[in-house]
Structure formats: structure tokens, C-alpha cells
Amino acid sequence: MARPSRFREPDVLTRAMLVFWQHGFAGTSVRHLEQATGLTASSLYNRFDSKEALFASVLDHYIVKVVQWRIDRYLRADDALAGLRRFFDSTYDYISEQRPPMACLLANTALEKSASDHAVRAQLDRGLALLEDAFADCLQRAVQAGQLRADCDCRRWARHLLLCLQGVLVDSTIHPDHARLSELVDGVMAALPLQQH
Amino acid sequence: MARPSRFREPDVLTRAMLVFWQHGFAGTSVRHLEQATGLTASSLYNRFDSKEALFASVLDHYIVKVVQWRIDRYLRADDALAGLRRFFDSTYDYISEQRPPMACLLANTALEKSASDHAVRAQLDRGLALLEDAFADCLQRAVQAGQLRADCDCRRWARHLLLCLQGVLVDSTIHPDHARLSELVDGVMAALPLQQH
DNA sequence: TTCATTTTGTAGCGATCGTTACAAAATGGA
DNA sequence: TCCATTTTGTAACGATCGCTACAAAATGAA
């Protein structure tokens, strides 16, 4: 057959992901990607058609490895509300571990890339729909567990949580302060239609 | 004296602002700025030291001409809650007038520029503090008018509103749909500690 | 009218951008 | 062993990047 590749594709995508995540699409050069992945440009272009195509693959990778992973890890916990809280906490836990905070590749891309880039837009839609559905499921379980009021409109509250999540992510890059962010999330959780005991 | 300038500085800043707002800092070239302002690069560099310095001036311009203007226009209305609602509405009204939606230059910059760029960070802080204070004042007036409960912690709710605003702005670029955004703002307003009648 | 001063337009600087041509290197199959 | 196939490293392509040198143009002061 052919000469074997020196790198596994998931590793390349993960390393490229971190660069795009931190510096954005326009702010990331192919030279930078070469350095981060350890591949030369010719190898990168051999696997991916262009910087744009690599970015599309990275976006898919992010949705599975970061978004879906966090959904599975937190939003499927037995205690739905506690899981939701931990999901938000983990968001800025993750951020404050990094230097500097990088928010969320989906939100970054939403604000950076042109709205006329329909392929990227569709990927963002998919990633955020994943989150919205996971929020809705989580809230539904909280209703069934008697944590939230029975008349809670889970779909609408899921959209509200998605909105708050994006707000937390933007805020975390401006005020990377754990206490402040935790207080903000307190407010988000308290706004939910909690079941009164 | 000297040869007079063909352009007024505020006009130049406004035009440059629209370009940075839409395409980001890295995504905006000096050629693009020349075209948008009608000035040549030599004229731009004669007034501003660098692209970075021009961006800093543009950010100041944005804080005064867009942020402060909207605060004065909406958040100082006699009916504090109605003004607050109109402030949020105006945010995505403004967005849907544009092709494509451009969110907010402060949020865009927060997610794009490096956290180590302390000068830009300080400007973002200033702009967002302006908004937070205006929200707090607005809520305080709503409390005094009996629209919100007397025990409302206006400062915390102001931060919450700032969070929701950023969320709305991100969402508006992904789903530039007026009805959906209006429903989201319904949720934000309903979450406030309204005085029960 | 001459001069000092600032803005303007032209033209292009070196550096970096995304991308590619090409041949050497590394494999399994024949 | 030789071949077909794919990856790799080297080197560089034309285009564009942020930026600037330089002189002509346009003003008020002397």
C-alpha cells in the first residue's frame, strides 16, 4: 500500500482546534497550524483541501469532543438541576484553567465568521441545537423529579439557558473571575421556575 | 497654517467602525479601511499611528456613539421597564436592519482579541461598566416606581441583564429571527422580580 | 510672493498570507 | 525485487499584509 501517516487524525484536529479556539479563524495562520500539529503544510493540505475545510472538520470535532462530551458528562446526571449547575460551572472552570480564557468555539465563530458562510452557519446551528435539546431534556427530567413546576415550558427555558450560556461565555473572557461568574450562574439558576416546597 | 483635511474625523471613525464591526479586527485589512473611509493609507497613518491605534479610537467612538447613545435613548425613559424592554428590542431591531447581523463590537472584540491585550481589555471593561451601571439605574427607578419588588438587588440583576444582553447578541447572529429573539427577551423580562399586584 | 506646515496621492517596501509543484521516503502487493 | 500508492519535506509561488518614503498639493503667516 502507501506510506503510513505519522499522525492520527483526531490528534491533529484536537491540536488545530485549540489554535482556532484561541486565535479565531482569521487570526490563525497555516504556519501556526503547522507548528501546533507538527505536520508540514503539504501534509495538512494532503488531508484537508484548504484552511477552510480544515476549520470545518475542526468544528465537527469540537461539537463531538467538547459539546457532546460535556452534555453527556453533566446534563445526564440523575439530579437534573445539580447537573445543570455543574454544566455551567464546568464552563468557566474549563476557561479559568486555560491561559487565556477562550470562551466557546461555537460562539467565537458565530461572532467572527460572515453570516453568508452558510456551511459554517449550518454547523453552528447543529451544535447549538444539540445543546438546546440537551437543556430541554434536562429540564424535563427536573419537572418529572418535582424540582421544577409542572407547567414549566421546557423548550422555552432551554432556549433561555442557551442564551445565558452564551452570555456567561462572553462575560468569562472579559471578567475571568470565578466568584463573579459563580454569582451570575446563581442568578441564572434562581430564575428557573422552581417547585415551591 | 497647513493643508486642510478632506474628512472629518468622526465620519472616518464611523465608517471604520462599521467595517471592524462586521469583519472583526483581524478580518479587516488596511485596504478595506481605505475603501470604506475614502482615505488613502498615508492619510490614515498620518492621523492614527497604526491599525491597532485606529481600532482603539474606533472602540472609543463605538462606546460613545452606539452604547451611550442607546443608553440615553432607551434606559432613561420614564417607564423604566418599558424602556428596558425597548432597549433589548432595539438591539436586534438594529441587527436585522443590517446585512448581515453584526452583534456588538464590544462582544465581538471580547471573543476575538487576545486577553493579553490589556489596553483593549480596559476599553471593553469601560464600555460594559457603562452598560451595567445604566441597567442598575434603570432597575432602581423601576423599584421606586413600584414595578419591581423593593428587595430587588439591582446591581446583581444589572449583571444578569448584561449577561442576557450578550447572549441575545450572540444568538441574533446565529438565528436572525425577530420572533424568536422577541420570545427570548420575553423570558428575560419575565425573570425579573416583578412586583405582584 | 515666499515660507513653514500638514495632508494628500503614488509607489512600493519587506514580511507573511494561503497554497502548491516536485521529488524523496515509506509502505504492501505482485 | 520492483511497482503502485500515499505521505513527507523542501522550496517557493503570486497575492496580500501592515506600513512608509517621498514629493506634489493646499493652506495661513510673514
Describe the structure.
The structure is a homodimer of 197-residue chains. Chain A has 197 residues and is mostly helical. Chain A has one domain (9-191): Tetracycline Repressor, domain 2. The mean pLDDT of chain A is 95. Chain A is built from 9 helices and no strands. Helices cover 72% and strands 0% of the residues of chain A. Chains A and B meet through helix 6, helix 7, helix 8 and helix 9 of A and helix 6, helix 7, helix 8 and helix 9 of B. Chain A binds a DNA duplex (30 and 30 nucleotides) through residues 1-6, 29-31, 39-43, 45-47, 50-51.
Rg of chain A is 19 Å
Oligomeric description of these chains: homodimer
What's the pLDDT, averaged over the residues of chain A? 95
Number of helices of chain A: 9
The total number of structural domains of chain A is 1
Indicate the CATH architecture of chain A.
Orthogonal Bundle
- Low-pLDDT runs of chain A: none
The helix content of chain A is over 70%
Biggest sheet of chain A, in brief?
none
**CATH H-level superfamily title of chain A:** Tetracycline Repressor, domain 2
Judged by helices, strands and strand pairing, the structural class of chain A is: mainly alpha
Strand content of chain A: under 5%
Shape of chain A: elongated
CATH third-tier fold name of chain A: Tetracycline Repressor, domain 2
CATH first level of chain A = Mainly Alpha
Strands of chain A, total number: 0
The rounded distance between the terminal residues' Cα atoms of chain A is: 69 Å
Q: SSE string of chain A, helix = H, strand = E? A: HHHHHHHHH
Largest interface: A-B, 42 and 43 residues
